[in-house]
Amino acid sequence: MSGTHDFVVVANRLPVDIQNDVDGERTWTRSPGGLVTALAPIMRAKGGAWVGWSGAADTTIEPFEADDMWLAPVPLSAKEIATYYEGFSNATLWPLYHDVIADPEYHRVWWNAYLEVNRRFAEAAAVNAAEHATVWVHDYQLQLVPQMLRRLRPDVRIGFFNHIPFPPVELFGQLPWRRQVIEGLLGADLVGFQRTGDAANFLRAVRRFTSYGTRGQVITIGKHWTRPERHVRAATFPISIDSAQLDELARTEAVEKRAAEIRSELGDPDVLLLGVDRLDYTKGIRHRIKAFGELVAEKKLTVPAAALVQVASPSREQVDEYKTLRHEVEVMVGNLNGEHGSLGRAAIYYMHHSYPQEEMAALYRAADVMLVTALRDGMNLVAKEYVAARSDLGGVLVLSEFAGAADEMSQALLVNPHDIEGMKSVIMRAATMDPREGRRRMRALRKRVLEHDVAHWANSFLSVLEAVPQRTSHV
Ligand code: G6P
């Protein structure tokens, strides 16, 4: 089984949103997000294919071309959405890989669905990949695909990138299927991580749960005389955004005008604070609201001179922990506004929906203080977006040390979001920072983010992967 594409991306989601018109016509729009922006030029140049799920249940969609990419939809039944996606991916792996902030659940039926769906993705990749193609598999939903694909197609080069943290071995060890997951990942030639700490955790897990030898970042597989050796490299490639594009957008007159409008709609506060997240318990939204609420209660910040805008886009709404979180956040927002708001003026402006990129750019441009207070985060691209949008060198970034972005963005004000008092003083420091210091910090942050954009990320990963010697089809 082999196809015609020299480059194949395999990700849980397709890079487009598919809509069905009333007359049954199918249309699509490119979904927002850095991954597709980074990969689209490479896909175009190499005639690439993208294997992924459309987001709909029980729907078989024939492969089609969109945006110069060949899209190969993988169907999921309603039951598989509950067991593979909401279950094993988002109620087992997601909390386990994010420091067990929520309790991971271990269910054998969920694991079986994960196996089954990973097999389906591996088969779809095998069908689309040309001989000696490069296949790039993404994220925690598909950790078994590298090994499954290697069995089907020993000729292809396989890369895997983990977008979320890789947990310490003491937590990873809870997973009843830990060895299978490690073996799944080791089917790749290159396994990429966001932070050096993630790669180190993975290498420790390999040493703990397999008998393969490791030397530095290289793992040697199959050291038996009947099988040739194979090497797997584990390395760090911090992901980024299309910084130049956002920089340009944020400088436009329309965005500047909208930023000013937002401030005036909010009553021209002295200090406008901003949070932008998927509504996820890893993002530290409750901790942030608590710190802000205490500052208001203690009159260190007053309403309406200070206001917090919190954009929380809906996410994984069928998963229990997300339902609970939504309820808790909404109760906190209600309490705070009930206590400290007045007619026409709130302490927190909470929005449970997402916005187009222009509006986000305007919000970034309008905010004096950006609060990124994740309890654990693979990278956090909002931190990078804020910086890319601030060509005026205004604004201060408060950044959790538990977000991958902290490794690269040391000029931000780093916080431990569990330390509410500490976070309160950092917020006050950000709110009252001397503009000269703010500009100096922002300039350094922007240099990093503009130089290390998402194209740089994709190219560095692919150049390491493509340096792997080509194999024959018969190994
Ligand atoms: C994180 C994950 C992605 C995922 C995204 C949105 O960024 O790393 O793999 O696609 O969240 O989550 P969803 O469950 O809606 O795909």
UniProtKB/TrEMBL annotation:
Gene3D superfamilies listed in its UniProt record:
Glycogen Phosphorylase B
InterPro entries referenced in this protein's UniProt entry, alphabetically? Glyco_trans_20
Ranges in a coiled coil: none
Q: What is its EC number?
A: 2.4.1.-
Q: The organism sits in which domain of life?
A: Bacteria
Q: Name one GO biological process term.
A: trehalose biosynthetic process
State one molecular function term (GO): alpha,alpha-trehalose-phosphate synthase (UDP-forming) activity
Q: Which UniProt keywords apply?
A: Glycosyltransferase, Transferase
An example Pfam family from this entry, by short name, is Glyco_transf_20
Q: What class of enzyme is it?
A: transferase
Question: Which family, according to the similarity comment?
Answer: Belongs to the glycosyltransferase 20 family.
Q: Which PANTHER family match?
A: BCDNA.GH08860, TREHALOSE-6-PHOSPHATE SYNTHASE
- Listed name of the protein: Trehalose-phosphate synthase
UniProt source species: Occultella aeris
Gene this chain is encoded by: otsA
